[in-house]
Design a protein that fits this description.
The structure is a single chain. This protein has 296 residues and is α+β, with helices and mostly antiparallel strands. It folds into 3 domains: 3-62 and 201-217, 2-Layer Sandwich (Pseudouridine synthase), CATH 3.30.2350.10; 65-199, 2-Layer Sandwich (Pseudouridine synthase), CATH 3.30.2350.10; 221-290, Archaeosine Trna-guanine Transglycosylase, Chain: A, domain 4 (Roll). It is built from 7 helices and 19 strands. The protein has helices at 15-25, 56-60, 96-102, 127-132, 174-185, 219-223, 233-240; strands at 3-9, 31-33, 42-49, 64-72, 74-76, 85-88, 108-112, 121-122, 125-126, 142-156, 161-168, 189-199, 202-203, 228-230, 245-246, 252-254, 263-267, 271-279, 282-290. Strands 1, 2, 3, 4, 7, 10, 11, 12 and 13 form a 9-stranded mixed β-sheet that branches. A hairpin with a 4-residue loop joins strand 10 and strand 11. The longest helix is centred in the middle third of the chain and has 12 residues, at 174-185.
């Protein structure tokens, strides 16, 4: 079965545990996640089953929306509520208006330093293991993309918190955003709570809890996220046999919310795939997965 499984991951669950639970319930079927979610966070996790796991990288490219409560007045080593307190300066003198005025600084592409307590690999080893063993890590900045940051609940002068909705691209750490906002405030900040609300067109309210009877989504739902072409039976046969096809011969073109620089989503009656632009109006097949007829 090649399908999509949306999971509402509870706080305290690791993403790998969700995969293991799903794999066991599905009798050992191949299951993979399309991007992890911190164990301290809750919300939407996308799992792919069967050969659909080959689309993991493409799903990871989809935009994500988070709802975060940021606590001002202190810092932790993990940049969230689960870490050790390393600084406590209080929020009494923080002017919440500074926050409103500074959020525009995070719009678009900016460099971000990931937390040292993270699953990122450094010389083949997870950063969190190195950091907790006492290694002094220098986390390299990397470009991330913020589509939008909106204040949902204004800054609370009584408890030093603000609730944000953050729309961002792949690889963004909301914990690092909180840490950076803490630097701007001068009093420190960390993530008090974090929920992932959506990934692309997939929403949290569609998701299954790990202990639920699972409802699967067909690969058509994945295709809706991408700018794509729909091809004829003749081109479907050529594409699935490894041959390049002509863009101008596609039956339909659909505009999605995600476009890839050198890659195009290609859909037929019985398959979903991605191809690379090959010049002269051609698309060369890269990844092809048959649709599951029981789900389409």
């Amino acid at each position: 079965m090649n399908a999509i499984l949306l999971i509402n991951k509870p706080v305290g669950y690791r993403s790998t545990k969700c995969v293991a639970v799903a794999r066991k319930k599905l009798g050992g079927m191949k299951v993979g996640h399309a991007g992890t979610l911190d164990s301290t966070a809750s919300g939407l996790l996308i799992l792919l089953t069967g050969n659909a796991t080959r689309f993991c990288e493409h799903v990871m490219s989809l935009p994500k929306v988070y709802r975060a409560v940021i606590q001002f007045g202190a810092e932790t080593d993990t940049y969230d509520y689960s870490g050790q307190l390393i600084s406590e300066r209080g929020f009494e003198n923080f002017d919440g208006g500074i926050l409103t005025d500074s959020l525009f600084l995070f719009s678009g592409i900016r460099l971000q330093s990931p937390p040292s307590i993270s699953a990122l690999k450094i010389d083949g080893r997870p950063a969190h293991k190195l950091a907790r063993s006492g290694v002094d890590l220098e986390m390299k900045e990397r470009p991330v993309f913020f589509r939008n940051i909106k204040i949902l609940t204004p800054y609370n002068h009584n408890d030093g918190t603000v609730e944000l909705e953050i729309s961002c691209g792949r690889g963004t750490y909301i914990r690092s955003l909180a840490h950076d906002l803490g630097k701007i405030s001068g009093c420190g900040a960390y993530v008090k709570s974090l929920v992932r609300k959506s990934i692309g067109l997939f929403a949290l309210d569609e998701a299954n809890y790990p202990d639920d009877d699972f409802n699967f989504l067909p690969l058509n739902r994945l295709a809706e996220n991408f700018t794509r072409i729909y091809v004829s039976q003749k081109d479907s046969k050529s594409f699935t046999n490894g041959m390049s096809i002509l863009l101008r011969q596609s039956l339909k073109v659909f505009r999605g919310i995600s476009e890839m620089k050198d890659t195009l989503c290609v859909e037929g009656d019985n398959f979903l795939g991605f191809g690379n632009y090959a010049g002269y109006d051609y698309v060369r097949p890269a990844v092809i997965v048959p649709k599951d007829s029981l789900l389409c």
